[in-house]
Amino acid sequence: MAVYKPKRKGEASKFYVCEFVYQGKRFQESTGATGKTVAKEYEKRRKAEMERAAAGLPTEQKSARIRTVAEVIVPYLEGYIVSHRPKSVLFSKGRLAQVKKALGHVVLSDLTDERIRSYIRQRQGENVSGRTVNMEVGELSRAIGQPWSLLWPKVRKLEERKNVGRALSPNEQKALLDGLKDRRTPHLPTLIPLLLLTGMRAGEALSLTWAQVDLIGKLLTVGRAKTANGTGRVIPINDDLGSILATHRTWFVKEFGEPGPDHHLFPWGKPVPSDPSRHATDITWGWDQLRIDTKVSCRLHDLRHTFATRLAENGVSESTMLALMGHMSRSMLERYSHIRMTAKRDAVAGVTLSQKGENSGVVPVKVPVLEQPARIQ
Length: 377
What we know:
Number of strands: 10
Structural class: mainly alpha
Strand content: 5-15%
Mean pLDDT: 82
CATH topology of the largest domain: hpI Integrase, Chain A
Largest sheet: 3 strands, antiparallel
Distance between the termini: 98 Å
Number of helices: 15
Helix content: 40-55%
Radius of gyration: 32 Å
């Protein structure tokens, strides 16, 4: 067996050729590879294919034998777009963009356990969280079409952060709201209060159309959500939010005219909103600048935690919280109900053994201790 670059007219060919003998016959063919490692892998697989054919087993198509990571990702995303919602497509593209950048040139046969570990170490060196790395490698395995556990059985997933978020303190919330007054973008001054007053996910809020907002009836209808229970849920608009949305509508009319039912509250466009038929998808830069300016360290999703916590502290029933938050189960609800210790102390303080005003100077009664009977000799 051998792989080599044949010479024609004194110059070596660009592609390697493999040459081997199988069942007494000599085979020679181009591997289509410019690297020796890939060429050897081609030769190995070609012989395996012949053995399968001789045994009467099905063989794979030639085009599927040697593919790079990039060649796998492209058709995967093309098919993914057809059957998944835009937000999921955006997520998949984002994860696979990082994978393609680092591993796009690597052939699938070289995606060994050690190669994946090397990728993980590289991402960790870039201060990427364990959860993000797990999602990237997991998305790669889905693009290839096999589970992580089968592709790289000796590579363990990274530990993910256990804390699920936190509620903002009143001072932090005030700092964020005060910081919105100096924002140039028209989206954040409406979006941030909207998230704090409804508990919506950022994606749910950004995709809102004017048909989903009833300023007269003071109701807001969520569109397609992360969970089935969350889709189509109705959230009342309180006075604070009503005033904010009315101001936002005035801005919208000034920029785009009277809003149509399919127009989005947060139009797409960079550096300024320009297309109300599409909704904004990325507010990262503005959100990061707001946190830096106000010195508030939190995630955008923590605004949802803050809303849930305020509900719990106000004694809102679990069924009402579920209806507003759109969760599927109590276990999911509990992830967001971070009752502060102050509220817990207030709740416990109201539970007493005597009514207020009763004489607390009751003399305790001493319980008599019975003598043990004498043992029988």
